[in-house]
Fold each of these.
Amino acid sequence: MKVLINDIEHDLAEPACLTDALAAVEATPPFAVAINREFVPRSQYAGRMLQADDRIEVIRPVTGG
């Protein structure tokens, strides 16, 4: 199944959950995640199933002054 992760197309095996998508981009904490512009709590990553064409945003905090 094709999904967009940070605007880059990725092909994931079905069925796929959010943790599969995060593994595909080798995401390392700290980060927040939204699927189709909806924030997903960390406690729901493993159970959140993905659908074809989902748009996943992995957002990293920005520090500095």
Amino acid sequence: MPPRPKPGSKADRDSLRTELLAVGAPPATIATEMRARFGFRPREAWRHAHGWTLQEAADRFSDAAGATGPATDASLLGKWEKWPAAAGRRVTLAVLTVLAELYGASLEDLLDLEDRRALPESDLRLLRHQAPGAAAVRAPAPAPVRAPAPAPVRAPAPEAPLTGADLIRTAADEASEWAQWAEVPNCGPVSVEQFAADARGFAADYLMAEDPLKVYGQTHRSLVRVWDLLYGHQNLDHRQKLFTTAGYLAAMMAWMTSDLGHKRQAATHIRAAMVAAEMAGDPGLQAWVAATRSKLAFWDGQFRAAIQHAEHGATLQAPGTVTVLLHCQAADAWAEVGARAEAKAAFGRAERASELDLANTLHDQVGGLFACTSGRLANYGAAICLRGDDPARALSHADHGLAALQRQDVRPLGTIAQLHITRAGAHLLAGEPEGVLDALSPILALPAEHRTVPVRQRLRDLARRAAGSPMGDSAAGRRLQAAVESAVREATHALSLTGSDSGWIGNHD
């Protein structure tokens, strides 16, 4: 059964009321305690202070209002208590007057700040211009509440279960209260779509972010808001969509955290994404979670695990371009362990999967970070060819990727940077030192904030390979080492990172 909207079961309420009545506490004190302990709204707290069910209070209200007064039933009374929530019904001064008489309260006792903000100005004026002292006047407490001394010490409900008609009426009233809770979700279709739209926006913004940490913070705040909603309840369709959005946001947090050099925290985020994907039952989200796990494993030097995650994700046959990326990731990891045949075969599968995109049949639910465009595919192809000692094909893939990314509305700065570094690596492999420096010039011209951990690590990797090549002792080689050291130092300072900034970083962008 879903959780009740507020703490305070019937047994809790009965126990508190019995204890306070035993020491002579008036209904006002009991209502105050009900609000403080269980978070009830004022009108609900006063009803529980008297120990009445909604039906009992509605019957008493009808008797007190008479034939000419406002009519009510249990359902309407419950809506008056919940107002100004969306599923509530606005309470009028006429209704408040009857309730005040019924509960032995003042009008002021039955209203809180939330009520006052929602009341019409005309009602507020009437409240402000009551006769002096009127707000403090309370009708005498009904006799049933001021029970004689022996009554409070009778065994509470848990020790003396209800039977017969009392049990039937109580069970029906509890069903009525649950139904009121269940029909009032904490969000609607507009809110659900807004969070999904925010996720799409963050996924695009991160690729072009001048300040990655800013997008990180925005994504985190949105994810926390979605989690807060999921602690409540929604209709089943909206709940599934919220879990899907939470899964994508958590996977983004894992990806970004990894890019910022914090592997352990990234692993925590991806576990949260895995839970959300399981709850959502969305194969597209599950595949992107697998892709993110593959990326994290690759960065941690666990290349076999990266292959396993990528190959598992590909079996999900998810919609969109995620299958293209998963095959690319498998190819990248195979190439890293020196398995050239397997890398070539996996990349061939990626290219065949991408052919569907040429016919515009692939649609990504989120896009941006969670999309594998032709430019991203070319980035993987260039890196794989470079590891295969084929600088000409690596350059061809890199040039094709850069041209494709320039035509996109969303230009991923990290992928563009990696393509330039791959071009530099191809010139290094071809023995063209001046070409290396020319290819790196766009990276060195980038604002420091754009050089995230993947970019810095690939720059370092290039510098290490250059140091061990014939270029190492040349003037161009010394310029390259100095430029890389400066670029890495500036970026690390600009992003104010304190986490790990080392380890194998390949093409898993």
